[in-house]
From TrEMBL:
<dbReference type="InterPro" id="IPR015892">
    <property type="entry name" value="Carbonic_anhydrase_CS"/>
</dbReference>
<feature type="binding site">
    <location>
        <position position="41"/>
    </location>
    <ligand>
        <name>Zn(2+)</name>
    </ligand>
</feature>
<protein>
    <recommendedName>
        <fullName>Carbonic anhydrase</fullName>
        <ecNumber>4.2.1.1</ecNumber>
    </recommendedName>
</protein>
<dbReference type="InterPro" id="IPR036874">
    <property type="entry name" value="Carbonic_anhydrase_sf"/>
</dbReference>
<keyword id="KW-0479">Metal-binding</keyword>
<dbReference type="InterPro" id="IPR001765">
    <property type="entry name" value="Carbonic_anhydrase"/>
</dbReference>
<dbReference type="Pfam" id="PF00484">
    <property type="entry name" value="Pro_CA"/>
</dbReference>
<feature type="binding site">
    <location>
        <position position="100"/>
    </location>
    <ligand>
        <name>Zn(2+)</name>
    </ligand>
</feature>
<dbReference type="GO" id="GO:0008270">
    <property type="term" value="F:zinc ion binding"/>
</dbReference>
<comment type="function">
    <text>Reversible hydration of carbon dioxide.</text>
</comment>
<feature type="binding site">
    <location>
        <position position="43"/>
    </location>
    <ligand>
        <name>Zn(2+)</name>
    </ligand>
</feature>
<dbReference type="InterPro" id="IPR045066">
    <property type="entry name" value="Beta_CA_cladeB"/>
</dbReference>
<dbReference type="GO" id="GO:0015976">
    <property type="term" value="P:carbon utilization"/>
</dbReference>
<feature type="binding site">
    <location>
        <position position="103"/>
    </location>
    <ligand>
        <name>Zn(2+)</name>
    </ligand>
</feature>
<comment type="similarity">
    <text>Belongs to the beta-class carbonic anhydrase family.</text>
</comment>
<keyword id="KW-0456">Lyase</keyword>
<dbReference type="GO" id="GO:0004089">
    <property type="term" value="F:carbonate dehydratase activity"/>
</dbReference>
Length: 232
């Protein structure tokens, strides 16, 4: 184990925790009440808690290679379980898919040969193949490689948002009007956060409201049927 990690643990126990002990005791006593679920990349340079300056108990975070959300029917795994738990048990009202610049997973999509010794990574990235197809067919062939990588990372966020809607807990919460979906892109080199407004990604500024990919509004396709009354 790297010595800096051991030193960090020691600093936390000796200097940080004593001043925050009551907060941690409260979190155990009252339980967690996170404001949002953030599905982010496992890249060590991208920390949702750091980007949002959130404290313990404020965010429910699920990280994986490529900030991927497998379609519900294709995988019963950690990402699907985290989504279901966050929406059903914790009652989060916002779910964010957060991509980022210089993403290694997206580089793997662009250069499949680099994954020949990583079959599990290659299999996992099949959930991003739609984004790769979009960039291949909807963007110019002579696009600069850096721009292509950026486009792929952005399109991947949009694809994962579509996958997110296939999860029953998400679909039901959207229909009830109790959930909003967000697509973010963090530019590591500038610290800029871009948010998807349903059409394109726009940089977040201090003055502007945060764009939302899909605002939840109550809806029922069978509008002629009685509304379900919640149990008392």
């Amino acid at each position: 184990m790297d010595s800096s990690i051991i030193q960090g643990i020691s600093t936390f126990r000796g200097s940080v925790f004593p001043g925050q002990q009551r907060m941690y005791e409260r979190l155990v006593r009252d339980g967690q009440q996170p404001k949002a679920l953030i599905i982010a990349c496992a890249d060590s340079r991208v920390s949702p808690e750091h980007i949002t300056q959130a404290g313990p108990g404020e965010l429910f975070v699920c990280r994986n290679a490529g900030n991927i959300v497998p379609p519900f029917s294709q995988m019963n795994g950690g990402v699907s379980s985290a989504i279901e738990y966050a929406v059903v048990a914790l009652g989060v009202r916002d779910v964010v898919v957060c991509g980022h610049s210089d993403c290694g997973a997206m580089k793997g999509l662009m250069q499949p040969g680099a994954l020949k010794d990583m079959p599990n990574v290659a299999a996992w990235l099949r959930h991003s193949h739609a984004a790769d197809r979009i960039v291949c067919e909807a963007y110019p062939d002579d696009i600069d490689p850096k721009d292509r990588l950026r486009a792929l990372a952005l399109e991947n966020v949009v694809v994962q948002l579509a996958h997110l809607r296939t999860h029953p807990s998400v679909a039901a919460a959207l229909a009830r009007g109790g959930l909003s979906l967000h697509g973010w892109f963090f530019e590591i080199e500038t610290g800029t956060l871009h948010a998807y407004d349903g059409t394109r990604f726009v940089p977040l500024t201090d003055e502007a409201a945060l764009p939302v990919a899909e605002v939840s509004t109550p809806r029922r396709a069978a509008a002629d049927l009685p509304v379900r009354v919640a149990a008392e």
